């Protein structure tokens, strides 16, 4: 119970603090607030604005459970487009790369996750172990240099768990061709020769000198960070020890070549055997048996941020229902809480979406799902929590339908979705713009975020 007097004085302090905040922010020319409603309104000339202009394009870093750029917070509103390198490899489709960056940046998306692998397949980057197609590498160079033009940073994934674009099974095929006695695709995680193949690929990509701008990948701030593997699973060892050992070895290896960039594993986020009390958060009982372990895996030395994917339509039931939304909320909240309490790192929901092929699907549901993810992130952001951001699966430009697995969002054809994405970018940018605040006044970021929370609750 609060007595009237205390209530009055705390309200007064709230108002005074909020007024001060508004005045200072206006003075700092970072962001301003629309007092007519409870929604944050952002009034800067363009996304990124001065703080990301030209010479200040610097590496994303991590401070506690948040991302920072130039000492300012950096919350991620981003997307996936996995095929950029392959499209860039052909002059007739290269323009699609530019198109998707252009359309994404127009709604404020500023991070893109994409494949820096294509092993042994059509338009392979790596034709055989450590043998590269220079034209395809130049295509990846193009993707990296083009992203920068749109102020988009890239999360580059280094191998696939799945067979698409080669993956661990391609490494096993190479091993067998070299005469190794291999019995399972999961030998990828444990056989010394296959581990050496993977390391050679890591080394080749990280040390690549971009032919468009002469910048070595490992020094390029356009790269947000590296991802060890897309959705690693090691079903042959439900104890999780085999995958854990691989992550430990590879995280240190990546850091030995490139200590500057952030690193994530690429996990879907299932809770494993080390945390039996989290089993009920998993979408199903099978999830605990795939050899991954959200908390244990992310405690590995060298891993900077956590990931989780969100696919209720694939994990719970294909038919759309409210249960998908409820799952999304509790799944995200649990990972955000664990990132805060056990990992002290940001968590990025690196893939989420819904397939238009699902029974009961409509675009309203898709917007509701996206809105739920964004609200959950924002709720964390306001508290300075570990919800580091999210990446839509997936954004396509027009005319690439033949690559669509049902999840593609064509922004130019989906006005309502575009508006939701755009609004979220504006809201996050208000937090990301807490720059001059710190520069001019030397205040602690945490302090500022507290004030933001108060402001929104007024
Ligand atoms: C191949 O490895 C399996 C399991 O490790 C073993 O049982 C088998 O004898 C090996 N085969 C050869 C030809 O060495
Ligand atoms: C890259 O470096 C080479 C050799 O120093 C130089 O000839 C070339 O002009 C440079 N290219 C760019 C885009 O800076
Ligand atoms: C869209 O789908 C949801 C979930 O299946 C359903 O509740 C809603 O009525 C549908 N809306 C329209 C406009 O069809
Ligand atoms: C976000 O926080 C608000 C206020 O605390 C709450 O009402 C809402 O349910 C939360 N949204 C989600 C998606 O967690």
UniProtKB/TrEMBL annotation:
<feature type="domain" description="Glycoside hydrolase family 5">
    <location>
        <begin position="59"/>
        <end position="393"/>
    </location>
</feature>
<keyword id="KW-0326">Glycosidase</keyword>
<dbReference type="InterPro" id="IPR017853">
    <property type="entry name" value="GH"/>
</dbReference>
<dbReference type="InterPro" id="IPR001547">
    <property type="entry name" value="Glyco_hydro_5"/>
</dbReference>
<keyword id="KW-0732">Signal</keyword>
<keyword id="KW-0378">Hydrolase</keyword>
<dbReference type="Pfam" id="PF26410">
    <property type="entry name" value="GH5_mannosidase"/>
</dbReference>
<comment type="similarity">
    <text>Belongs to the glycosyl hydrolase 5 (cellulase A) family.</text>
</comment>
<feature type="signal peptide">
    <location>
        <begin position="1"/>
        <end position="30"/>
    </location>
</feature>
<dbReference type="InterPro" id="IPR045053">
    <property type="entry name" value="MAN-like"/>
</dbReference>
<protein>
    <recommendedName>
        <fullName>mannan endo-1,4-beta-mannosidase</fullName>
        <ecNumber>3.2.1.78</ecNumber>
    </recommendedName>
</protein>
